[in-house]
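User: Structure tokens for this complex, please. No commentary.
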Amino acid sequence: MDSLLIKGGVPLHGEVSVSGAKNAVLPIMAATLLTPEKCVIRHVPDLTDVGFMAKILASLGARVSVDGDTVTVQAAKLKPVGDYELIRKMRGSICILGPLLGRQRQATVSLPGGCIIGTRPIDLHLKGMRDLGASVTVEGGYVNVRARRLIGCDLFLGGRAGPTVLGTANVMMAAVLAEGVTTIESAACEPEVVDLAYFLNKMGAKILGAGSPTITVTGVKQLHGVEHEVIPDRIEAATFAIAAAATDGEVILHGARPDHMHAVLDKLKEAGVKVVRKGLTLTVTRGGRLKPVDVTTLPYSGFPTDVQAQMMVLMALTPGLGIITERIFESRFMHVSELARLGAEIAIEGPSAIVKGGRKLSGAPVMASDLRASAALVIAGLAAQGTTQVNRIYHLDRGYEKIDQKLRGLGARIQRIAQE
Ligand code: UD1
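Assistant:
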């Protein structure tokens, strides 16, 4: 398994382009299953998760080709089941369930894997599909959904932690080919859901309200092929912005969508980070002394859980008490013990992490536990004195396009070490 060797203490300087959003491209790739016609997706990031999704679509009978950042899919004919081993490896693969149910009126998908950040149920996805008229059974680790007819209805998708992003995507994709009108209440408002709805509408779907908690889908008989460019990755952009502030550097981010990043940019400002916006370009520097802040993760447009770990590193470098409360996933503090190995002082109290910031961080070998935790460890390694080895970086490659290369372009001393 590869690891990253980081010689820290070097401020990041330079310019970097934001890649396409992982969380937008995965459901969009799944949505191509809804039509037998060819779909072309552009600005696709080069990630192992995208490679997995391409293989899953191919295992279902679709023709998939990748040319640079363009993925072309044509699902002329579909097989009823895909490669379970592949599907098991990636949480995002659950979003093939909705399109398969919509187009074929049946799907069998293994319960998904992915990051270990608490139990990741799919009860809300299944509830939505049941409401549309599907029968759902879970057997031997597989979910079977079947429907003779899918009938539009009013359904509620709110859960304990609020709306579900992929659940909304899944139900929306099943509903586009249902009969009649489906209204999804407590829908996720994330920009990635909006991008998917935009893609589906270009295919001929009739979706209104995406980006708000009420989405209305009027079913259509069939969908057609389209071309689409995926939105920029707001989580990657936030990660680079925090890395710039953490290392006291200056980074210019091109091709960002600051309108998708209000909560993060607002918190960074409160923490004393200067972000200058000019169109789709963000210039990030430390404005002066960093200040501790309280952060609570919430569904969009609140502070994203996917930026919680990175923000914690910034707080670890900021003198004073920072408080980070995680409201979306219950076990998303696995990075805390690894950050402690670098010298950070962080105590967990229920859903909150109390960060006694301002301790000197020094390099150490650390273990990446999930995608965003890995990004946090990289930022901490860049800010720490000495050498940090981040092990198990396959998590990073799932969600950050060429992160080591991009960071090297900003002056970081970071090297990938291939291990058997
Ligand atoms: C997506 C993102 C992930 C992000 C998360 C929250 C993708 C590929 N992944 O994951 O990066 O961290 O949104 O912004 O887009 N829940 C249930 N029942 C369900 C589904 C979810 O109780 O059926 C709960 C989850 O346990 C969690 C909360 O709802 O507490 C939100 O999860 P959800 O929005 O579904 O996350 P994902 O869509 O899996």
